[in-house]
Amino acid sequence: AAPRIDVVTIFPEYLRPLELSLVGKARRDGLLDLRVHDLRDVATDRHRTVDDTPFGGGAGMVMRPDVWGRAIDATGQAPGPDGGPEVRDVVLLVPTPSGTPFTQAIAHELAGAVSGAAGPPARLVLACGRYEGIDARVAERYAGEPGVTVREVSIGDYVLNGGEAAALVVVEAVVRLLPGVVGNPESLVEESFGDAGLLEYPVYTKPPSWVGLDVPEVLRSGHHGAVARWRRDAALVRTAERRPDLVESLDVDRLDARDRDV
Ligand code: 6GU
Fold first, then answer.
1. Nearest atom, ligand 1, residue 95 CA
2. Which value does ipTM take for this structure?
């Protein structure tokens, strides 16, 4: 069976970009079983209510745990492609500005989990909250469920109106790491946040001169050793300028000996 991802949201149309480009192609090629669900489908009143006022007072609305519980449980009821029920471990991922930072390392973990890199494949369920968030008992309940891992993650230090845009980010970051999705897996290794923990070096293509700006001569020299050296230096300079926090956490043992005093 293809790796499975379920997204639950009150705005299923918000996830339409997942029909496009690399993720859309992975789905059409049968490399990914991605399903988007409308949270309101499991609401029980005639207004299909999913939220209510916060206990303790305060502004805004909070999403109801009973509605979320039914929606999350329902993602496991959907039969597999063979029509039979599936029992698989679940990673419940909740995008929230109060979460732990979402990183490339987490993307790799999730890709490994859903593709069954180490053991039976897990299902990944993304729960997109709106308003002031989801009643905290939802995370608590599923964290206590055998076979379920709950991860509350933030995609950065800014506030979004809901988890949907973050879910798009998480799905794209994970899906491109699934086996067979990126045609040339070499494009996965030289990237920012790849092995070395550095930002990517600047890249150039034709024309060699544009509006008075020239491509660095070394890149046109055909000297592969010199090109590699230049790119390595440029990556280090760029990282030091833009992300001093990353330089702090560089693993000295994984640096080229020549880089250690740059
Ligand atoms: Cl993951 N969700 C929301 N709603 N806002 C965010 C976020 C996530 N990450 C940063 N801001």
1. 1
2. 0.92
